[in-house]
Write a structure and sequence with these properties.
118 residues, 10 strands, two-stranded antiparallel ribbon, Elongation Factor Tu (Ef-tu), domain 3
């Protein structure tokens, strides 16, 4: 992992669009209901805290690079955003994967090769 790939997002809770309500993750379920967010059966919503700035289209990955996701939508305080700053709590919508995330897992931001050389 290059020095440029540092922790970007810490997962607090998650919701797979095709799962039944998980009572362990009541906060994300309340957030989905309160702000009328639709999570389709082929999507995943991750809630957590940003450690780095993030924008739509960014690629995030797990520590061993075995899973990558693309940021489809960013939610914070009941609104959608194209860009969010480090330090914010937010929810990230992405396509569902076969990989199972876990609470407090850390995702890293993939930087383009040109950024790695700088």
């Amino acid at each position: 992992m290059s020095n440029k790939n540092k922790a970007c997002f810490i997962i607090y809770q998650y919701f797979y669009g095709d799962q039944k309500a998980n009572t362990n993750f009541i906060e994300i379920l309340d957030y989905i209901k309160r702000y009328n967010i639709t999570v389709n059966k082929n999507e995943l919503l991750l809630s957590g805290r940003l450690c780095k700035d993030i924008k739509l289209g960014d690629v995030l990955f797990t520590k061993n690079y075995n899973t990558m996701i693309v940021v489809k939508c960013l939610f914070a305080y009941g609104h959608t955003f194209d860009f969010l700053n480090a330090g914010m709590s937010c929810a990230i919508l992405t396509n569902i994967l076969e990989y199972s995330f876990f609470q407090y897992e850390i995702l890293y931001k993939l930087y383009p090769e040109s950024a790695k050389k700088q």
